[in-house]
């Protein structure tokens, strides 16, 4: 069987997926199996884990520095070229879940969404 994406290499990765379809009288689950070569399969998995950044958004890696009922402090993880640390104080209630102190994670957001998380505006 050939890879469904490139149609050139032998499919060696078989990834299952399912979608719930809403219908009158109830929903049904539709199952899919995708067949990829290892190269296209790895690219597909990378895209699922790290979706592309859309225009107007940015992605930053942050470390959770501290957590209180009111504020969560995140520090941008910087490279040698951007060595000056920058801390963000976000409203804990607007994050939607408690983040573990010390954890590094990636955030994708628009500037207006960041301002909302910081409490600088009422809507994202």
Number of strands: 6
End-to-end Cα distance, whole Å, is 47 Å
Beta-strand percentage range: 35-45%
Strand numbers in spatial order across the main sheet:
5-4-3-6
Quaternary class: single chain
The helicity comes to 10-25%
Overall pLDDT metric: 82
Gross geometry = elongated
Largest sheet: 4 strands, antiparallel
- Structural class by SSE content: alpha+beta
Structural account:
The chain is an alpha+beta fold and 124 residues long. It contains three helices and six strands. It has helices at 38-49, 92-95, 111-117; strands spanning 13-23, 26-36, 57-67, 71-76, 87-91, 104-110. The model has no long low-confidence stretch (mean pLDDT 82).
Features of the shown structure:
41% strand; single chain; 124 residues; alpha+beta; four-stranded antiparallel beta sheet; two-stranded antiparallel ribbon; elongated
Short recap of the structure:
This protein is of the alpha+beta class and 124 residues long. Helix content is 19%, strand content 41%.
Mind sketching the topology for me?
Layout: E1 13-23, E2 26-36, H1 38-49, E3 57-67, E4 71-76, E5 87-91, H2 92-95, E6 104-110, H3 111-117
Antiparallel strand pairs: 1-2, 3-4, 3-6, 4-5
